[in-house]
Amino acid sequence: MEIDNSPKDKRPVASTPVPGSPWCVVWTGDDRVFFFNPTMQLSVWEKPVDLKDRGDLNKIIEDPPHKRKKDLSEDDSNFPLADNSDEDNDGDHILKSKRNKLEETASNSSSASEEENTERSTVSNQMLLPLELRITHFRDMLLERGVSAFSTWEKELHKIVFDPRYLLLGPEERKQIFDQFVKARIKEEYKERKNKLQQAKEDFRKLLEESKITSKYVPLSTFKEFSEKYGRDPRFKRVPKQKDQELLFSQFVSSLKKRDKENRMRLRKMR
């Protein structure tokens, strides 16, 4: 009975998941190792950032499952087989079963190799783009990935490191563009927050108008009554601070009192 000893190639032959992470270690036929993330459909040759401090990773890499299967096959071959066709068939079935499992593992991880080649080709083509355009793509990535302007490079790295556009720039350029992006975004985010709060206050005032409050209300002393009645309204909740809610309430009641006073004075002049 012959055992398949075909020449090694660069296709994946085995894989095993890294416990507690989204990554798998994949071995190729020429004894190389790469890392595959099935969730993101991403494969990389270099050790991913979130696996850098994994002390058990080397142990996993040094113990490829397909080598263990090969050893088992060799051990099985040491057992004498009688001249019986049924037993020969059983032996063939065992080896075919092991071979099928290996082929199934290789098939499941073959997409990793194709993904790696596609990604490398894409990045290589993109690297031919002018620097200005590559910087634009990099900035777009930072914005699309939701990088916070109030955080640090180290804390935000996990959001962008797997995006192909991350490779468009070198390490120094990435950090430089990130710093510039953060400074610009701080101003923009402050403006966005300010506009959002302004809109929330406008909506709060509309709620006050709809509530039919009259000038007979005494500011603050009746705010509790108002909040108990309208506190579940989304427009009430959009103004996050109670002191701002109380101020808006007080200003609204004051404006009603002023308007009523002006109306009374106008009526007196008309008499």
From TrEMBL:
| Keywords recorded for this protein, A-Z | Coiled coil, Repeat
Please give the SUPFAM superfamilies that the UniProt record associates with this protein. FF domain, WW domain
Q: Which GO terms describe its molecular function?
A: RNA polymerase binding; transcription coregulator activity
Give the residue ranges for region: Disordered.
1-22, 56-123
Biased composition regions of type Basic and acidic residues, renumbered to the chain: 1-12, 56-65, 91-104
InterPro entries for the chain: FF_domain (IPR002713), FF_domain_sf (IPR036517), TCRG1-like (IPR045148), WW_dom (IPR001202), WW_dom_sf (IPR036020), WW_TCRG1_3rd (IPR057565)
Q: Which SMART domains match?
A: FF (SM00441), WW (SM00456)
Q: Which Pfam families match?
A: FF, WW_TCERG1
Q: What is this protein called?
A: Transcription elongation regulator 1-like protein
Write out the coiled-coil annotation as residue ranges. Answer: 183-214
Give the WW domain ranges: 21-50
